[in-house]
Amino acid sequence: MAAANAxxxxxxxTSACVRCRLAxxxxxxxxxxxxxxxxxxxxxxxxGFHEDKQGYPFVGQAGKLLDKLLAxxxxxRQDVYIANVLKCRPPxxxxxxxxxxxxxxxxxxxxxxxxEPKVVATLGNFATKxxxxxxxxxxxxxxxxxxxxxxxRSVLLYPIYHPAAALYTPAMLKxxxxxxRSLPELIGRVTAPPPEPPPVLVAEPAVQLGLF
Length: 212
What we know:
This protein is an alpha/beta fold. The protein has nine helices and six strands. It has a six-stranded mixed β-sheet. A hairpin with a 2-residue loop joins strand 5 (146-150) and strand 6. The radius of gyration is 22 Å and the shape is globular. The N and C termini lie far apart (73 Å).
């Protein structure tokens, strides 16, 4: 419960953030939502129009698709944690700018350190490049897990296309569904207890036969 309280307190503090120009035009900060102890965390790009109005990430059409994809692997929003690289909506839903990402990334890293997820699924280019520390696009790396250090912890990073990609290109839905199908196995792999070491066999002392 301490981590959950710390996350809530940090969310309240973040609601007053003025680290970058996006604070001037936002309706509210969109911090994140879900299980504060989730093994699986999703990180998207930035809030859109509906997210800015409601204060929750992924509540538009892309959010509905995300819910559908989660249901397809037996999960819901209550089982995971969902956040974005940026906590405020860029004007006109434009791409995040480098100085905005730099100003906001500390909030995301703090979230990761408090939630302690085992798997972080990045949705789209911006989240993938930021959290992997590499400039490889999502087309090249989607569905390929990699170990990274986030918030001072080692986690399994799993890049996935942003759900919005399937809204613009319906053929992308099959790719998304395929990548999502790997998530339960990844979570099971990193949360499984370590195998017990094999028992150590101690040789019985040799019994010297008496002479008759």
